[in-house]
Amino acid sequence: MNHHRLLSTTSCPLSKNVTAKLNSMKHKTFFVCEAQRHFKPSFTISQLQNIRSVTSETSTPNLTQSPLHSNSSSPHFSSQLKSTPVPTPPTPPTPIPARILQRALSFVPAHGWTVETLSKAAVAEGYLSVTHGLFSRGGVDLIDYFLEDCRRKMIDELSGKMDGLKTHEKVKMACVVRLNLMRPYIKRWPEALTIMAHPSNVPMSVGHLAQLVDDIWYLAGDKSADMNWYSKRTELALIYASTELYMTQDKSPDFEATFKFLDNRLTDVMRLGKAISEIGTFIDFATKSAIGILASKGLKFPGN
Amino acid sequence: RIIRNDKGDNHTAEPVTHFGFREVPEKEKENLVGQVFANVASKYDLMNDLMSLGVHRLWKNYFINSLAPGPDTKLIDVAGGSGDIAISFLKYCHKTYASPSPHVTVVDINQSMLSVASSRLESLPYPKAEYDLLLSNAESLSSVPSDSFDAYTIAFGIRNCTHISRVLSEAYRVLKPGGRFMCLEFAPKQSLAIIEKLYDIYSFDVIPVIGQVIAQDRDSYQYLVESIRRFPQQEQLAEMVKKAGFVVMGKGWTDLSFGVSAIHEGFKI
Question: Is residue A207 part of a domain?
């Protein structure tokens, strides 16, 4: 099984037997599924929570290009474990590009997701304005880093706070936490969305969204191993993306309208989900009744 | 690599290097290259247009846009005899910023090339204070103090240097912390087989002939074409850049035009 990828933590439902076997393993690995081909490699949640297990048990051959995984005996390993990696990894590994990107986030409200922001951040960190060249895609690299950073912050904030809640409450809490991370940048977010919509950047943005919804469902305790796995994530992706879009034009105090919008969408889906399964039950019943009636009239069916 | 002299003892053995497809003693390469450039200096643009079918202008534009200098960037452009990069740099700064204060130092080992740069820079509307010229060997920029430039560029020059690693070390030395090294050069390995084949045919069968017809100098053009093939491949050059102390992002280079040329980048952080 050399499909080990340190990607999301939940299993693709395509192979139930293997899934059952894997569930007993400490790390949930998963096979590269069609929809997940664009995932950017990153940390599994269990690794973020248990550093020792990573250093002692991780021996996956096909590791990501992130320097975090390439050398588990590096002295920087445990500190790098906690910080968000840079989209294009530096060789030799150094924390400076990540530091510049982190600093750049504070310049975003004023200057947007641009090379100018990166230049200013580089100068603020004590380097030169041309040092922005570390990030060959410019603003795109910054957005990439920001999305990964938000995902990690969300996971950090949620760990330990999800006990005792129902599934739909957990999902709602995760979405709320994640949306709150957008608050300082929401005025500049429409620009980021435009950049993310460019064809060359779509794999990056879709990958982040997919990873986000997967992590939210994992934290909410999703154990589905059938087509539900896909439908849950698709639904949540649509809900989350539309709420984020709504938030960019929300002028209500403290974004109340956005959270109400989120509430409504989640309730809709729950109602719809229940309705769909009710419809399924109804159709099932109606079909069986019809077959029964026709069979009693003498019509032969295969299996009668 | 050493060669023995006729007597068969190696007291007087000299290190050899490549000059195109020939082997020559290291000490002589500089002179030979100097002669080549003295010959082509007056028709340098023509030579570049021949070698790249005019695409070199696009490459150089991309190069400077990728550098994206700030309003007060200090650039050292090495082997920049033709002045192309220096002019492009000054134009970019003046076009992008309201009141920039850029500065470029053009370095070249060859006086005739440097004169070309000088005359072209003088014809620009920019103040003389924004540029200066330096006659020096890229392998040892002895009159340039350490930690003094924001960016170091070398476009289509590094393959003519005898010791690439010395050039890279000097580049590292003269850059400030945070400084950026950028190298634009023809690459020996193309990424598409058909382009490689066409480029080979064009390089070896067409260019020297045109050189002979237009400039009456087949040998210089032959050297120029051969020197590309002897240049380290993109991966090897990226390793050398790392060895000089630079931090390299991702694989360290970008292919242009399917690998006909490549930009290598390193950061002194």
Answer: yes
